[in-house]
Specification:
single chain; 391 residues; alpha/beta; 4-stranded antiparallel beta sheet; 10 helices; 20% strand
Length: 391
């Protein structure tokens, strides 16, 4: 597109207005390592490994079609924290553009008097998360070095197991002046899927090694919420729960190019209980939409935010852009559409509409989806190259 055309199709500066019902509330953003959608019973007719999260979702806003923008933590954290995807041959954190001016959710909320922090039980320096948090002004970073009992609780691989670490986070944020915005990234459900010694016989798991650690992570969440419910900040808090990416799956649906990016996204507010029952949102949403979503929920004033969020979810996988606007999936090589699918009639993506006789009725919608994605991708590339990744 020319510059004029591009501005007509997509503007990365979002002028976010307060929604009104949760202005000024605390926010706790919980990113559960490798929590693929397949593991969550709520999404799969009760078959899963997350009984606590399932019960919480019964009183939450639940996104039915949420997607990660990448398949690794080093891609997921920048996308969630600052709306920056890695639509590159490598990851953004280690790219030529890593020093671009980029703002995070924590930055925008600190402008309104919020305390902001990022907790990760892993070693300081892991995947340069501490540097990224500092560069995007996401708040105070707390890693393994700051954990008071690291010698006693260290798991021997990555850092501190989820149950003691989430208990520690609860204690820490209970000492902070409200309002606060806290992000916590868990780690127990990461390979090599090691459970603490006192938990090895408690979680039976399933056919994959990760399943027992997902059960453990879910139980750690149960304990965290039980502790949090006793704190004075609890009823004045919005909880957002998602995953950094999915992991290995057993069901064919979650093994497809589209299915392997599906993740849970849950918004829970304990009081007033906004959701007497689960409220299902069927719009397509992705990691880079979390920043404007959180800001819109709690901002007390109109605020301009740089965001690549749109009505399509995009991943860059194996040289192809995968563009999703449920139920459509489009594979684009940068020049032309390679494949497209209709998940409603073809959930396993076995019929390429581009090469079938079924494309006719779908073509206008697919063309519209591609036009939007092209505008977002061009904006992304231009913004990186010219250091315009900020408002």
């Amino acid at each position: 597109f020319t510059s004029e055309e591009l501005n007509q199709h997509f503007n990365p500066i979002k002028h976010i207005q307060p929604l009104g019902k949760s202005n000024g509330k605390n926010v706790v953003l919980i990113i559960v390592e490798s929590l693929g959608k397949e593991y969550v019973g709520f999404y799969n007719n009760g078959k899963g490994y997350t009984p606590f999260l399932d019960s919480l979702m019964q009183h939450s806003l639940v996104y039915q079609h949420a997607y990660a923008n990448g398949k690794r933590s080093i891609e997921g954290i920048p996308a969630i924290v600052a709306g920056m995807p890695s639509w590159l041959t490598g990851d953004y954190i280690n790219s030529y553009y890593q020093t671009n001016l980029l703002h995070s959710t924590g930055y925008y909320l600190q402008q309104q008097g919020y305390d902001a922090s990022f907790y990760h039980g892993g070693k300081n320096g892991t995947m340069s998360f501490d540097r990224f948090v500092a560069q995007t002004q996401a708040g105070n970073y707390f890693g393994l070095n700051q954990y008071p009992q690291k010698k006693e609780d260290f798991d021997g691989n990555w850092g501190i197991p989820d149950r003691p670490y989430l208990s520690y986070v609860n204690k820490e944020i209970s000492t902070v002046k409200q309002p606060f915005f806290t992000t916590v990234f868990t780690l127990s459900s990461h390979h090599p899927y090691q459970l603490p010694a006192d938990a090895k016989n408690k979680y039976l798991g399933g056919p994959l090694p990760i399943h027992a650690t997902i059960q453990y992570a879910d139980d750690a969440l149960r304990n965290f919420f039980a502790l949090a419910a006793k704190q004075d900040w609890y009823n004045n808090t919005v909880f957002v729960i998602t995953a950094d990416h999915s992991s290995e799956n057993t069901l064919p649906y979650y093994q497809t190019m589209q299915g392997k990016y599906e993740i849970p996204l849950v918004v829970f507010e304990p009081k007033p209980t906004l959701y007497k029952n689960a409220e299902l949102n069927t719009t397509t949403i992705d990691h880079i939409s979390i920043m404007p979503l959180v800001v819109s929920m709690v901002t007390k004033q109109a605020v301009p935010v740089f965001s690549l969020s749109s009505d399509v979810a995009i991943q860059f996988d194996g040289g192809l852009y995968q563009i999703i606007k449920y139920p459509y999936v489009v594979h684009f090589d940068g020049e032309e559409i390679v494949a497209s699918y209709d998940l409603l009639s073809d959930s396993l993506m076995q019929t390429n509409l581009q090469t079938s006789k079924q494309i006719g009725a779908h073509q206008p919608t697919i063309d519209s989806i591609l036009t939007r994605a092209k505008a977002v991708i061009q904006t992304y590339n231009n913004s990186l190259i010219h250091n315009k990744t900020h408002e």
